[in-house]
Amino acid sequence: MSNVRCPWADEEAYGAFLESVVDGSTLAGMASLFAVQAFLDAAGWPKGVIEGIFLKFYNEDICPNEAFTAWKEDTATVAPGRMTAIMQTNKWFGWFAENAAEESDDEEEEEEEEEDDELEGVVRAGKSVNQAVLF
Fold first, then answer.
1. pLDDT number for residue 22
2. Given CA atoms 68, 60, 19, 110 in this order, what sign does their dihedral have?
3. Is 25 exposed, middle or buried (0-12, 13-18, 19+ CB in 10 A)?
4. Residue 116 and residue 77: Cα distance in Å, rounded?
């Protein structure tokens, strides 16, 4: 994976601004990824930069996960450097698929724990009501 750090996308720099512009929108996230693609095409595709930017956008939650997938799968948008961008992000998307699956598993476990806690609270409340009625 790339060692490009993209400090300009840190939360203290422009990361918070970028996140607020995208605001969890898949379409806005895709637009920002296409803007990165266009910029790097004009810059001559410096090695590893697109991977570094994608990683930063992922780690800082600038773009929702769906935006990365939608950008990769988009075949309708004609944009300069599309094939180069796809080729240079292939390894990153392998990493992304593994991490997105792990993240999804973690979220499911958290949801199950929350449901268990809620059910336990209902059961405790039910016991309290039953005990109050009995006495």
1. 77
2. positive
3. middle
4. 45
Q: Which domain holds residue 67?
A: 7-134
Q: Residues 50, 89: contact at Cβ < 8 Å? A: yes
**Residue 1 domain-assigned?**
no
pLDDT, averaged per 10 consecutive residues of the chain (135 residues), comes to 61 64 84 93 94 91 93 94 96 93 65 67 59 53
Give the number of domains in the chain.
Answer: 1
38/114 Cα distance (integer angstroms): 43
Residue 4 is which amino acid?
V
* Alpha carbons 26 and 133: distance in angstroms, whole number: 52
